[in-house]
Design a protein that fits this description.
By secondary structure, the chain is mainly alpha-helical. The protein contains five helices and three strands; from the N terminus they run αβαααββα. 8% of the residues are buried. The N terminus is likely disordered.
C-alpha cells in the first residue's frame, strides 16, 4: 500500500502553469496592474489629504499646547491619536481591498487550472495530486513521483 501511494504522488508545478496560462493570465496581470495604479492614485490622494490635515492639526497643537488648559490639551492629543488610528485603519482596509480585487481577478485562472488538473488526474487514473505551489508538503520523494505538469499544460493548450 505504501509503495502504491508513493508511486501515485504527482507533482504539479502550479507556478509554471499559472504563469503560462495565456491570454487569461496576461489579462489578469494587465488588469491587476491597471487596477493597482488607479487605486493607488486614489488612495494616495486620500492618504495625502489625511496626512496634510493631521500635520496641520499637529502643528497647531504643538504651537498652542503650552497655553492650553490641560483638559483641552488632552482632548486635542486624543483627537490626534484618533486621526492616526483612522489612517492606519484606512491603509489596512485599502490593502485588504487590493488583495480581494486580485483574488477576484485570479479566481477564473485558478478554476481553469484546477479543472485541467482534475481532467489529467482522471485520465491518468491517479489517486492523489499534490499542488506543491499552493500546499506545502514536508517531504516528497521525487524519484517515486510523477510530474504531470507537461500533460496539464497540454490540457490547458499551453505549449
Amino acid at each position: 500500500m505504501k509503495r502504491i501511494l508513493s508511486c501515485c504522488l504527482i507533482l504539479i508545478l502550479l507556478a509554471v502553469c499559472v504563469l503560462a496560462l495565456r491570454p487569461q493570465s496576461e489579462y489578469v496581470r494587465t488588469s491587476d496592474a491597471a487596477l493597482d495604479r488607479a487605486l493607488n492614485k486614489q488612495l494616495g490622494q486620500d492618504l495625502q489629504r489625511s496626512q496634510e490635515e493631521f500635520s496641520k492639526k499637529y502643528q497647531e497643537f504643538m504651537q498652542q499646547k503650552d497655553s492650553l488648559p490641560a483638559v483641552i490639551a488632552e482632548r486635542r492629543q486624543k483627537e490626534l491619536e484618533d486621526m492616526m488610528q483612522r489612517q492606519e485603519q484606512f491603509q489596512a482596509k485599502a490593502q485588504q481591498d487590493m488583495e480581494k480585487a486580485n483574488n477576484d481577478l485570479m479566481a477564473p485562472v485558478y478554476k481553469k487550472l484546477d479543472d485541467a488538473i482534475k481532467a489529467v488526474g482522471a485520465a491518468e487514473g491517479v489517486i492523489y495530486i499534490f499542488d506543491m505551489a499552493r500546499t506545502p508538503i514536508p517531504y516528497v520523494n521525487e524519484a517515486q513521483s510523477i510530474n504531470l505538469t507537461p500533460k496539464v499544460k497540454t490540457q490547458l493548450g499551453i505549449k
